[in-house]
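To whoever picks this up:

The parser on our side crashed when reading a file containing two proteins. I've narrowed it down to the boundary between the first structure block and the second sequence. Both blocks are reproduced below exactly, byte for byte. First block:
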Amino acid sequence: MPYWIRRSASISGVTAVLKRLKLRGKGTTGALLVLLVVLMALLAPVLAPHDPNAQNLMLRLKPPAWEQGGLPAHLLGTDSLGRDLLSRTIYGARISLLVSLMAVSISAVVGSLLGLVAGYRNTWLQTVILRVVDITLSIPFILLVIAIAGSLGSSLRNTILALGFTRWVPYTRVTFAQVLSIRERDFVQAAQAYGAKDDRILLRHIFPNLVSPLIVLATLDIGFIVIIESALSFLGLGVPPEIPSWGAMLSDGRNYIDIAWWASTIPGLAIMLTVLGANLVGDWTRDRLDPQSRR
């Protein structure tokens, strides 16, 4: 096979993607926020001043250190069980990042594979996959996740699976639409004429051209998954109560919002800043990798 055909997939592949990714403007702001959350998650045992699950009812609902009655040892105050909010917020970053990254990875892999299969050949598999996509889209996403998470039970693994195997549809639709266009290009037609196998064409010539849209979609999806995971934990369908989670902290704090605003405001701010950072990075990634947005 000629060299130009073997190298055709790299035109819009990983190398070209990396060359276009340069931080600037909102990308810098978003990256700093995301970096802050990542450092909190990675360095939680070092940064957290207390055990996130240590209870002390004598110190319940203590205000932040800068308010009257606050304690320097509990900088952001305590919750209804006397647990340190700063420590629980730091450890909560681990859950949000782990769930979002794992769920997005599962969704991207499953969705892109199904999109490749459906888009490359007009077979019965295409019809089945597209019908399943249509049925899934007819059900509100949050209701579908709640139903699956409720049936699986409350655990970290089940939360990841519930989110990962319900969010694959956007990746399938994007991949399917891109494959329909790419399969008609000259370099794919040439590879087929030279007798290249379908799996080689899909992996070497078509899939590298899908890297940009899939990265954009995955980046924008991280913030969305953080919100959904928090919502599941808020409803008691996410991670178990013994694991610090921003959604569970928010649920506990809402009962005391009139006398202890910090119990719900602190985890709420953590969710907001994380989603803001992820969305800013996603918008920046789209601006850098989407040719239409750069016109």
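<<boundary where parser fails>>
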Amino acid sequence: MRLEIVCIGTSAGGVEALQKLIAALPPDFAPAILIVQHFPESSTSVMPHILGRANQIPAKHAESGETIRAHQIYIAPPGKHMLVRDGHILLVRGPKENSSRPAIDPLFRCTAWCYGEHCAAVLLSGLLDDGTIGMVRIKRYGGLTIVQDPNEASYPDMVRNAMAQVDVDHVLPLNGIAELLAKLANPAANPSKCYLDPPDKDESEMDSHELKRLEHSTKVSALTCPECHGTLFELDEEGVLHFRCRVGHAYSAEHLLEAQSDVLEAAIWTAMRSLEENNDLLRRMSLRAKKGGRGKSAEFFESKLRENESQINVLREALGVGFASVK
């Protein structure tokens, strides 16, 4: 195996891990390096500056349409998925995957399709299970899969989930990953050459009609998309469960659970707010009834108030909120 391109994915704890990994590579490392680090879309990324100081390998934010060149680090800018097409970079504002844009899986999928056994996918520190589906594709097309040793990672969930669902080739500390990549690097790397014939489009750039054609090989689930509330379709990628909706939002099982938990929590807070507002009105009505000598009406309003307080306490327990009900 001779590497032409290395794609790296990371999220929480990834900046420090990337610094150490890039610093450990030889300064003449020839294969191109493509990096997705999860950032909020509204943020300003300074990763090229950070990684440029770690090594002599030039680092820059990727630009759509540019040729992938050897001895260069390309970093996905916030708000765009970074894809690979015929030896070029393509940036698209496609649907979020695992609530992220850029996301790790689209890069891994495209790199697998274009470079096959001449690529390596590396997962570093991060939360949940981003990158697992992409690693399945890398393995399928003959590429190398590497994860950071979870005992070293600041946030080991992402690498542990990949290890649990994919037969990864190597589990190594950062220095070990750098040594392996250097050993396998093609000193005459030419990453502008695409070795395989990729499909016309990645899922992240398909329109609704193209995504609809994918539904024929999927199973409709009883779940809805946390992003757009549309129907989710269940997919099985060599035993790895994931979901996609009609407009393209994609979720791994763990990310879907996390997103549903957020939606559920928001709904509970909304219910609590409505009950508290209702209680405020009931207190006013009870007070007016007492002043007007309508004792039975006041008792009715106060009984409804007690019912609401009981429901609020149940909701607070569900949220783990320990403070007392507002009186």
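After patching the parser it read the second block fine. The radius of gyration is 25 Å. The chain has three domains: 5-184, 207-248, 256-319.
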